TrEMBL record:
Residues 1-140 form the SSD domain. Pfam families: Patched. This is PTHD3 protein. Signal peptide: none annotated. Its main location: membrane. It comes from Rhodinocichla rosea. The chain crosses the membrane at residues 12-38, 44-63, 83-109, 115-140, 207-226. The gene is Ptchd3_0. Gene3D superfamilies: Multidrug efflux transporter AcrB transmembrane domain. Keywords: Glycoprotein, Membrane, Transmembrane, Transmembrane helix.
Length: 291
């Protein structure tokens, strides 16, 4: 928003901070419990950031709707209404993510197991911080707006001052209007106007409906075909550290020995007298016959 009072820059920053706190808490807990940290775990913060920012948008949207419904209500009732609207959606998405990653922790690959444990725990902390820390930030930001304080400095700004005498830059940065006055109702967000007036009527047109069904059918057919082309397996090089000796080993193995097919190993399960020359010759003859 252009208003120096209604701008929610700090609110968005605290939403990102909430995701960062979740990553720090989960990493600290897993390291304290002795779960090994592997290079694939370094990708977890990006996943947590995506989910955390999504939860932040849901919370802010629910808070704005609660303000429109109950403009004169207390902060306690506003926050209760916000949680009633947003908590269900945030909880369901968190549960699905946590279950997916904790199920993945049953894999036999240690690196994948560590990644799933770190990420699943981070989702739990992200949910906790969204429901606690970010809710408190919403209330503090609301009190700042009610006090007509600047979004950056939190100092009171001039309200109702004659703006014609000042420059546009000064008016945008240093002069605000009383928050949510009846005489100055806040206009709808441009994104809401776009979906309500343009996008909604467009997709409900009967010919557009037919086109969308055809497009979805093509997408579904392509997806089914793609599933039949998936090659099952995993590249072990992706599970090792970039500086590990394993990576050049697999590179050389693929370069020089990939044409020979899978290796076959023979195990002798009985006790053998390797010091006996005749026994050693028998083992070599057996290996030659297998070849």
């Amino acid at each position: 928003r252009l208003s120096c009072i209604r701008t929610n820059t700090w609110l968005a920053s605290c939403g990102v901070l909430s995701s960062g706190l979740a990553v720090l808490s989960s990493f600290g807990l897993m390291l304290f419990c002795g779960v090994p940290f592997v290079v694939t775990v370094a990708n977890a913060p990006f996943l947590i950031l995506g989910v955390g920012v999504d939860d932040m948008f849901i919370m802010i949207a629910s808070w704005e709707q609660s303000l429109r419904k109950k403009e004169k209500s207390s902060v306690k009732s506003l926050l209760a209404e916000t949680y009633a609207e947003a908590a269900l959606s945030v909880t369901i998405t968190t549960l699905t993510d946590v279950l997916a990653f904790f199920i993945g922790a049953w894999t036999a690959f240690p690196s994948v197991r560590s990644f799933c444990l770190y990420t699943g725990t981070a989702f739990v902390f992200c949910y906790v911080y969204t429901m606690t820390f970010f809710g408190a930030v919403l209330v503090l930001n609301h009190r700042r707006e009610q006090g007509n304080r600047h979004w950056l400095t939190c100092m009171r700004v001039d309200v109702g001052k004659d703006q014609a005498e000042s420059s546009c830059l000064y008016n945008a940065c240093c002069i605000g209007s009383c928050s949510r006055q009846p005489s100055q109702p806040e206009g709808e967000h441009p994104m809401n106007v776009f979906f309500k007036k343009y996008y909604g009527p467009f997709v409900t047109n009967k010919w557009i409906k037919v086109l969308l069904v055809l497009l979805y059918g093509a997408y579904l057919g392509g997806s089914i075909y793609g599933c039949t082309q998936i090659r099952e397996g995993i590249d072990l090089r992706n599970l090792a550290n970039d500086a590990s000796y394993v990576i050049p080993y697999y590179d050389d193995d693929e370069k020089y020995f990939s044409t020979y097919g899978p290796r076959v190993m023979v195990v002798i399960t009985e006790s053998v007298d390797y010091w006996n020359e005749s026994v050693r010759l028998g083992i070599e003859n057996c290996a030659q016959n297998l070849e």
